[in-house]
Design a protein that fits this description.
The protein is of the alpha+beta class and 252 residues long. The protein is built from eight helices and six strands. 17% of the residues are buried.
């Protein structure tokens, strides 16, 4: 299987974290916000000067218009994202709903906090992986800060957003991946029925099975995790209360 095909498969899962309505007119609320237990912003009771709008309510936690805008800006920073990929508001709203559901469950099963060392290590790698970072010289702190500022983030804001992403992926890993076992027969079947035909179509000599078996195992693991995650999210939506605000609808 070509390397980019593998990479896009992994990115598809993690983008889900891996998203229903376009141009919603939501109920205005003050932008002053507090944080719920799941880390999702909720309107504060104090007075604010700028208005925000409610996009959805997920088990009492609200998703705001500003969250959708932040998702758009955050998505543009993701490495390996094609330059022609357009932002979809519908997918973004669904992603935010799914993320809220996952974070609500993660709050019930707390893990050790992500360490500053782990966060810094990921951010160092990220600065090298983002293609558009090169023109900013993101290898320098000043260049990285300028890159983020042009996309509406401070260093602290982006660091906390990336930390939340790491927590979410770790929760998915622990909950779903650890119990999955991929057999040698499954790896061989994928090699013969998926990889070999692809290489034949491209008229390229395929690698030997033993050289790609680990990569195939990773792909199959990600596929199974993705399937389990989708089924679990459907169950959470069915059991909980997910409400997307309609145009002109007043929040309860």
């Amino acid at each position: 299987m070509p390397a980019m095909g593998h990479k896009s498969m992994l990115q598809e899962l993690r983008a889900f974290c891996c998203a229903v309505v376009a141009a919603l007119a939501m109920t205005p609320v003050c932008v002053a916000q507090t944080q719920s237990a799941s880390g999702v912003p909720v309107p504060a009771t104090g007075q604010g000067t700028v208005l925000d709008r409610i996009v959805a309510i997920v088990n009492g936690d609200v998703i705001l218009e500003s969250d959708v805008d932040e998702e758009r800006r955050f998505e543009s920073i993701q490495p390996y994202r094609g330059s022609t990929t357009e932002f979809s508001r519908e997918r973004a709203v669904q992603r935010l709903i799914d993320r809220t559901l996952i974070l609500q469950q993660a709050a019930l099963e707390p893990e050790d906090a992500i360490t500053e060392q782990d966060l810094d290590a990921q951010l160092v790698k990220l600065r090298k992986d983002i293609a558009s970072c090169a023109e900013y010289h993101c290898e320098t702190d000043a260049g990285w800060q300028k890159f983020l500022a042009d996309r509406g983030f401070t260093l602290e804001e982006f660091g906390e957003r990336w930390r939340k992403r790491m927590e979410l992926l770790r929760f998915i890993e622990v909950r779903f991946r650890n119990g999955i076992r991929i057999s040698d027969d499954e790896i061989k079947d994928y090699y013969e029925k998926t990889m070999l035909p692809e290489y034949a179509k491209q008229k390229v000599t395929p690698p030997k099975l033993e050289t790609v078996s680990k990569r195939i195992e990773e792909v199959l693991l990600q596929q199974q995790v993705g399937n389990l995650l989708r089924d679990w999210l459907k169950s959470l939506r069915a059991q909980g209360s997910v409400r997307i605000m309609s145009a002109g609808e007043v929040a309860p």
